[in-house]
Design goal:
Layout (H helix, E strand, L loop, with lengths): L1 H25 L4 H9 L18 H14 L1 H8 L1 H10 L3 H13 L4 E4 L10 E6 L2 E11 L7 E8 L2 E7 L7 E5 L11 E11 L3 E6 H15 L1 H16 L3 H20 L7 H23 L9 H14 L4 H11 L2
Parallel strand pairs: 1-4
Antiparallel strand pairs: 2-3, 3-7, 4-5, 5-8, 6-7
Helix pairs in contact: 1-3, 3-4, 3-8, 5-6, 8-9, 8-10, 8-11, 9-10, 10-11, 10-12
């Protein structure tokens, strides 16, 4: 397991980070990045051993996610969406769907995206209406990453107080409108807005149904993992600061990273503390990237330079995978 974490750091340092500036300028992640992740076994991380995965413990998973985020955020953010469907199919009682898709998802032969945030607000942004043979979906999924890259989309919709989880094909059509989004950073994630109009979801593509309260409770673990990206970015900024001879500043950032990581881990046993920990991580990433810009000087604002890229990516992470409670925590931190 520790070998996987070491391989992730090597992949991030030797492949992802050297290409990150070009990925940012072009707004496109080369498929060779995803192929390399698949070849190294990084598409099955969320699968337990009994379904063919590595059965990772949480500390190793965190090390891997932080390393990837510090390598190339566009690559990491697109790739990490895949694991929701791997986890979901590993737990489903729909053996037919598990046997059909899971082995190819674990190997990376099939790549998946995810859409679940639209069911969290009340009223939900994506609604499911029960009809004969399945559901009709209406509403929107505001941010879907990996469009044109993924083969499958894990989709959650809300039917009253029930969350319906399913697999759909990521193909535009009369009932599924696709609008590409122009992002300030991580444009390589190929993020789009989806609009659903009486979209028919057949029962044979549904792999799970859970009460809304259980879904929200289970989201704590996912939200903790989402906290890895800011810490990975902050760690990369610290390394670049050290390269500039700012060892004391870098050391201070690393100490803060360790503190925030401990808070994030502790929040698994104390979910109400998670939003504040997530906010602290996002604020730290933003501040660390700003410190790198200041230390590097005027060339930081030139296109193709890492400092300005990291500032824009830290801006992206202020809102990515966020919730109103995290926003409130950030505003409190910024007010100081």
């Amino acid at each position: 397991m520790t070998d996987l974490a070491a391989r992730a750091r090597t992949l991030a340092d030797e492949l992802l980070f050297p290409a990150a500036a070009e990925v940012d300028l072009k707004g496109e992640v080369p498929m060779s990045h995803f192929d390399a992740l698949a070849a190294e076994g990084f598409y099955g991380l969320a699968a337990p051993k009994e379904t063919g995965g590595p059965g990772l413990d949480l500390p190793v998973m965190i090390q891997i996610l932080e390393a990837m985020a510090g390598g190339c955020l566009s690559t990491m953010f697109t790739w990490v969406q895949h694991h929701g469907l791997v986890a979901g199919l590993s737990l489903t009682d729909r053996a037919d769907l598990r046997e059909r898709y899971l082995p190819a998802l674990i190997s990376g032969e099939l790549k998946a995206g995810a859409s679940f945030a639209a069911v969290i607000p009340t009223p939900p942004r994506l609604r499911a209406e029960r009809v004969e043979g399945g559901y009709l979906l209406d509403g929107e999924a505001p941010f879907i990453s990996g469009w044109g890259i993924i083969d499958l989309l894990q989709l959650c919709a809300r039917d009253g107080d029930t969350i319906v989880s399913a697999i759909i094909d990521p193909v535009a059509g009369e009932q599924l409108a696709v609008q590409p989004l122009d992002l300030v950073a991580a444009q390589g994630t190929s993020t789009v807005h989806l609009g659903f109009t009486r979209y028919f979801l057949a029962d044979d593509r549904v792999y799970g149904k859970v009460p809304y309260a259980d879904f929200i409770a289970g989201n704590t673990f996912v939200s903790r993992l989402n906290g890895c990206a800011p810490l990975g970015l902050a760690a990369r900024a610290a390394r670049l600061l050290e390269d500039l001879g700012k060892a004391a500043v870098a050391a201070g950032i690393r100490t803060e990273i360790d503190t925030v990581r401990e808070r994030l881990d502790a929040s698994l046993a104390d979910p109400p503390s998670l939003p504040a920990a997530r906010a602290a991580g996002a604020e730290l990433a933003f501040r660390a990237a700003g410190a790198l810009v200041a230390a590097n000087g005027s060339t930081s604002v030139l296109a193709g330079r890492h400092p300005q890229r990291l500032v824009r990516e830290a801006t992206f992470l202020l809102v990515a995978a966020s919730r109103p409670e995290i926003k409130a925590g950030l505003l409190e931190l910024f007010s100081r």
